[in-house]
Structures are given as C-alpha cells and as structure tokens.
Model the fold of this input.
Amino acid sequence: MTREITTDQLIAAKMAGIMAYHRGADYLHERVLPDGRTLFLLAMLFGNVRLCVSLEGDRLFFDQTFCYHDHDDALRAVLGWDGTGDPEGWVRHHQTMRRRPDGTPESEYLAP
Done:
C-alpha cells in the first residue's frame, strides 16, 4: 500500500536526492522500512529510475527491483510505500518479469 505524498513532500525529496547524489551518494533516496528492509532509488540510463528493495539489514543485495519511467512516481513509491504488496506506478518488476506499460495493475502482463 502506498500513502498519499503531497507536492511539497515530493519536491523536498527530489531536491534532497539530487543534492545528495551530486555530493557522491550512491542513491537518489533511501528509506528504511519498519521490517528492516531498505528502499533505494537508483538513477538509470535515459531518465529511468529503479526502486530497489534490500534484504533485511543488507545494503549490498536487493531482493526486488521495480523500474519506473517517471521520477515522480518512483519518489512517491519510495516515500509512501509500506513494503507490502507492490508499490504503485512501476513499469517493470525484474524478478518476476512482470510489466505494466502504463504503471497500473490493469495493464500488467508477464514478459516472455
């Protein structure tokens, strides 16, 4: 489940992430979930962003990765997702090869 993120929260997170990244941080944003897993936003080529979910207490290996074409959708997910089910707005889930061309569950299909 993903809670609603205000425009002010989104802008503040975007600016903080950009500044941290330009100061040498590995990720645009990171947040620890209550269960100990960490969410990371990783910049990709062509403006895409990847939401990576670490194993509990592990910063090196990711259990799940979700691709986003829209930076704002990815930020909303990393800020508001509680870690259960799937975050909202992703277009590709690497581990299951599921795809959502428009970011909605209704458009989901399994890639060959």
